[in-house]
């Protein structure tokens, strides 16, 4: 399966379908203008409209566009809380970071592994406890604002590999920018539907007895009826376009999930279970149609025109070309036999909130079976229990992150401790001091994953406390008069992700720049990576040339070592490179990987820099 060709094809088709949405709105405005002109305007005179019709039609156009726009904006603003808001609107409950439930703990572990492996922030995690179907969705404006929500059926019916495949599918929506598009589609559909609602009110109130006294009731009634008819017709076609957009994105998400996990059995197994189970992927939530385009599977039984996903058998065959339908009958027989047999182990009662029933444990492999996720799982398991417990609550997570910046040198450490006490008081100072030794003993490759695990609860801190955290963190890393690579990567990631989480709607969209337009920025970023990954300048130069030739084939380049104070120009270069198109970003990441692999060794410094670069470019970390 050619993932990048699939990605390019689906991105192009989605853009065309979004254009169709704009054309649908234009058609709605034109239809309502025509009705208003017939009801209230003057007839053409000498082959053209009377002058008095132009202000009338202009006013109608502005009013309709404003109605659709403001209604859509209202709906989008109502989802300003991002993924969390969408999940809670469906009755989902948050899965706490410190849950002791074994099934929910497994869910958190899988999501944390995928986040660490992909180099994205750990999202908020939600459970729909009253949904027996196998389904899930990702919502939010950006990766820093994301929430991933799964149904109870996912936890009851899927093994670990299958759950991992579903979660990887949802992460691909995060990384491909589908979440922002999904929220905007929800808003636009609401805006179009409001026309019909307004039309009903106009008929009821404006076309009533009081309006007919002066002879204007028929005109008002006609306009109200037109709003109802055009609103519902517009909603019908908008739903068709929404379904087409969703189907194209789902094909990309399936392909990306395989790219993440490096195997097809997990996500294909989940799709097969949806096919054989009576509940399938259906949802019982009353507003399921509003979020149907976000889900892993169909929310219910809809007409094929409104299907938001390709047919199940088509999705399975795309993943496993040799699949035969006989396998579904064998799977159904196996699952029936397993259901009839007594369960060997029962999970304890859930403690995630009211209404969460006990869930049976499902047999699953305890190892995250694929290489990228196995490494992420190994890093997560290597963290000391005291630190894992610390990053599960906001205040202790704040202390753990500050402890990551505490020096092992006694004189610098005393200065940093005073800075912490001045900024946060004695309680936080004591907590940082208690965690400092455990943090100092961490392997270098475990530092950023620890910060990633802390991120979901750090978002719960007030804006003022987050700002104080970032300011204090900056002061701590500058306490010795310099900022080393580990310190820079930590502060850059946290600042980037926390600021985006506070203002998720400001997260950047896909850029439009090509690589040649950002040649100097590419050269600087590649030089920084090559210099930190190689001990001597000659090796750094060779690695840099490999990267540049990968990005700009058949061109000549002159090596320039990065400046001693490289951090500020490096950040400026990253901000400029974030304006690249997705294919250009892909070429840049491939070039950086070439530089990193030049000496057949991947150092911690190179891995951390690549993680920061990918986060800054809003790209997944290469597995």
Could you please describe the fold and organization of this structure?
The structure is a single chain. The protein has 623 residues and is an all-alpha fold. It has four domains: 3-82 and 181-244, no CATH class; 84-172 and 257-340, Metalloproteases ("zincins"), catalytic domain (Zincin-like, 2-Layer Sandwich), CATH 3.30.2010.10; 383-506, TerB-like (Orthogonal Bundle), CATH 1.10.3680; 515-617. It has helices at residues 3-40, 53-78, 83-89, 102-118, 152-157, 160-175, 178-206, 209-212, 217-261, 265-276, 312-319, 326-340, 371-382, 385-390, 394-403, 410-424, 426-440, 447-458, 463-477, 485-502, 519-533, 537-551, 567-577, 582-596, 604-617, and strands at residues 93-94, 124-128, 136-139, 147-151. Helix 1 crosses helix 2 (53-78) and helix 18 (447-458) packs parallel to helix 20 (485-502). The longest helix has 45 residues, at 217-261. The chain starts with a helix and ends in a 6-residue tail after the last helix. Residues 1-7 and 342-371 have low confidence and may be disordered. This is M48 family metallopeptidase.
